[in-house]
Amino acid sequence: MDEAPHILVVDDDRRIRQLLQSYLLDNGFRVTVAANANEAREHMRGLMYDALVLDIMMPGETGLQLTQSLRAAGNAVPVLMLSALADPGDRISGLETGSDDYLAKPFEPRELVLRLQSMLRRQGGSGPGRAEVEFGGFTFHLQRGELRKDGEVIHLTSREKDFLRILAARAGQTVARNDLAPAGSEEGARSVDVQINRLRQKIEADPSLPIYLQTVRGIGYVLHVD
Q1: What's the whole-model pTM score?
Q2: Which residues of 68-90 are buried (b: 16+ CB within 10 A; e: fewer)?
Q3: Residue 138 host element (H or E)
Q4: By residue range, what is the domain housing residue 157?
Q5: Which residue from 124, 121, 215, 205 is spatially nearest to 167, judged by alpha carbons?
Q6: Structural domains in the chain (count)
Q7: Of the candidates 57, 96, 101, which has an alpha carbon nearest to the alpha carbon of residue 78?
Q8: Under DSSP, is residue 39 helix (H, G, I), strand (E, B) or coil?
Q9: How far apart are CA 144 and CA 163, in angstroms?
Q10: Residue 166, SS3 per DSSP
Q11: Which of 122, 145, 179 is the endpoint of a domain?
């Protein structure tokens, strides 16, 4: 199961969340559930999912708005939209915001599984991007949060794993400090610099002159990979 695709299900209907979770688990997926967009963002802050199953009509931030903001931030995770709205215009709106597929409610659970499998195949594997990144002799496995050098595991704290997952998932792109700060608190934002410095101690030959984990002044950080 450690290598099974990890799906984030986002739906404000508790019954549907439970049904989808149970069915997807029975079909070999790992599953995390969220009741709204805010909860989904918290889950995605420190973990990269292989796909999202996302309800369109949710209170607050809708599924369309969440997908649009993810795409604007450079997050290419595959998104399967669910909606009780069967009008073709609604389907087109979902696809225009960046979703990869659309399924109208009610639907057959088996069709959901087949559509997910098809989306994942189009991505070239079980996930939305690279399973591993390499830099400076290091290899980092995003799903396991495992950092190795010359076959030897380098110990990372849970926060260091979270940071490296986010940076590696967006390798070569600038990640804003606010995207790394827990809960967006002022204290958390200040602690980002401390965590980055600790990471540099483990991956840079000279942490004061970083080659791989670089600062983008006034914005955040970027991880350069091979």
Answers
A1: 0.57
A2: bebeeeebebbbbbbbebeeeeb
A3: strand 138-141
A4: 132-223
A5: 215
A6: 2
A7: 101
A8: helix
A9: 13
A10: helix
A11: 122
